[in-house]
Structure formats: C-alpha cells, structure tokens
Amino acid sequence: MPTPQRTGWWSERGRRPSNEDAALGLTLADGAELVAVADGMGGHAAGEVASRAALDALAAALRGGAGLRDAVLEANAAVRDLAASDPALAGMGTTLVALLRRGERYEIANVGDSRAYRLDATGLRQLTEDHSFAAELVRRGEMTDEEVARSPWRNALTRSVGGEADVEVDVFGPFDAAEPHAVLLCTDGVYRALDAAELAERLAGAESADAAARALADAAIRAGSQDNATAAVIAFGGWGAAAAAPPAVRAAPAAPDPDPARTPRHSPRHSRAVWRWRMLEGGVFLAAILLLLGLMVGLVFFMD
Questions:
Q1: Confidence category of residue 153, pLDDT binned at 50, 70, 90
Q2: What is the rounded CA–CA span in Å between residue 7 and residue 27?
Q3: Predicted confidence band at 5 (pLDDT cuts at 50, 70, 90)?
Q4: 33: which of 29, 37, 101, 268 fits an S-S bond (Cβ 3.0–4.6 Å)?
Q5: What sign has the CA pseudo-torsion 223, 226, 232, 237?
Q6: Do 289 and 184 belong to one domain?
Q7: Cα separations (Å) of 215 from 8, 73, 89, 230?
Q8: Are residues 256 and 273 in the same domain?
Q9: Residues 120 and 241 occupy one common structural domain
Q10: What 8-state DSSP symbol labels residue 261?
Q11: pLDDT by residue (tens digit) across 161-209?
Q12: From the DSSP assignment, how many helices (H) and strands (E) are in the chain?
C-alpha cells in the first residue's frame, strides 16, 4: 500500500495581529492520512476559533468512520453550533481544504478559497475551484480578471464552513497515490503573494515536505502578503528533492477532474448568491454616479 513519504505544514502570522489560519496533518487509526488547512474569519478572535474548531470536528468525524464530504458537513455544523453558543462568535466562518488518503487513492474536499495544487514532472496545476465572488464571475464569463482586480468585492466568499446550514462541499478525485507527485494545500495568504512559478519552484526545491511548507509560508510573508500564510505539503510515490520535477518547472493550467461525473456543479441557490453580489456591486457603482451628478449640478447652481 503506497503511503505519503513526507508530510509537513507551517503557518505564519505575518503582519496580522493574530493568526486566524489553522492546519493539521495526522494518521488515523485505520492508517488513513489526513492533511487540512483552514482560514478563519470573524470579529475579534472568532476567525481563529472557527478554523481550529472546523479542523477538530473534521478529524473527529473521520476518526468515527465518516467519509470526507460528511466530515466537512460535520465541521460546518460544529462551527455553526459554536457561533450560536456565544454572541462574540456570531457570524464566524472559515475556509477548509482537506486531503484524505485511504489505501491507494485520495480525495480532496474544498469549501471557500483556500486551494489545493498538484506538482509533478509536468508542472503545477490547481486541483480545486475557489468559492469567491471573483472566481465565480470569471468562470461564468461575466467579468474579466482586470475587472475583478478593480472590484471592491473581489475577496468576498460565496461559500464558507459555518456560513450556511446546508453548505455545498466540492470533492475532487479520487487520485492515484502511487504516482510520484506532491500536493500543496494553502490559504490565500500564500497564493496571492506568490505566482504559480514561485509556488512550483519552492515546492520542488525543498528537501522535505516540512521544509517546503515553511519555505512557502515564509516566502509569502517576505513577498509582502498582508494576510496570515499557511501551507501544508504531502508527498506521494517517492516524490522529493531527489525525484523532483525538472529544473525548469513550469506552471500548467488547471486540469479538469479525472471523472467528469464528479466535477462540482453550481446549484440554483449558489447562482443566486453570485447574482446578489453582482447586483450589489452594480448598486454601489450607480450610487457613485448619482453622487457625482449631484455634485456637478450643485456646483453649477452655486456658480450661477
């Protein structure tokens, strides 16, 4: 049975007053391997509470025999219950991306905009899809990357663990654990600061998964990330510095799911959430135009 040769994770607080990210890597009693990363949000210390609670509940559910999707739903319920128990935690939530290997296969679950990447001899590609206002509209062809960069809602999430009672969980895979490659799980504090080529270079050049995770988090902070930066790395099939990708590692485009039937689909409720964000952005733009016209009319009246 193939098993990951090396697993490691690292989290940097960076320039933030506290660290709302959380990560874990552990082996379950049945030999299954779990690696997960979460990026919490909420007032005061609520984000830190949400990310930690989600990972604790995820691990507990998997220890109890749950599948990966159901374990994420358990994490969602745990975060919501905790938020309901304390007014100071109201409205908290977290992203969650998790990899679970059982036997010769592994799956990846995702809610929010933390990401999973795969690095092999062909390059680096993103395995997950972001659940954010920006990503949704780009995928739907309603906005360009340039328009998204100017949008005040570019960082808004359309899904989070703890955000809704019936959160949708994307599950990607199964993937072959015997093939030589590495998987990177990271928060947006990492991938927004480092481009795909930089991610691939540091992941391929490290001597261990632990060293790679530390190098990625540290590089993101040094590159100017204003967020917490967390990375977790798991190696499969003998992947490592000695068997790394060629020196000129290139960033490959995101690969489609190997089984089209497992490709995540957007529900009508999910589409309505994106539509509401679009309408909100349009309302802000219209209000700005009306304010400008009002000022111009007032100026003309005053001059007369």
A1: confident
A2: 10
A3: very low
A4: 101
A5: negative
A6: no
A7: 11, 32, 33, 10
A8: no
A9: yes
A10: G
A11: 999 999 999 999 999 999 999 999 999 999 999 999 999 999 998 989 9
A12: 8, 11
> Are residues 298 and 271 part of one domain?
yes
DSSP-assigned letter for residue 116: E
Is the same domain home to 247 and 109? yes
The reply to whether 1 falls in a domain is: no
Q: Is residue 123 part of a domain?
A: yes
Same domain? 168 vs 299: no
In this predicted model, what pLDDT tens digit does every residue of 217-276 receive, in sequence order? Answer: 999 999 999 889 999 999 998 776 434 443 333 333 333 333 333 334 333 344 444 444
257 and 263 in contact (C-beta within 8 Å)?
Answer: yes
CATH number at residue 36: 3.60.40.10
Identify the domain containing residue 288 by its residue range.
267-304
Count of domains forming the chain: 2
2 falls within a domain = no
Chain-centroid distance of CA 279 in Å reads 25
Q: How far apart are CA 225 and CA 14, in angstroms?
A: 8
Spatial neighbors of 208 by CB under 8 A, at least 6 apart, are 6, 8, 240, 241
Residues 210 and 286 in one domain: no
Q: What whole-number distance in Å separates Cα of residue 97 and Cα of residue 23?
A: 10
86 Cβ neighbours under 8 A, 6+ residues apart: none
- Residue/partner pairs of 190-193 with CB below 8 Å, 24 or more apart: 190/216, 190/217, 190/220, 190/225, 190/229, 190/230, 190/231, 191/115, 192/225, 192/227, 193/219, 193/220, 193/221, 193/223, 193/224, 193/225, 193/229
Distance CA 142, CA 278 (A): 9
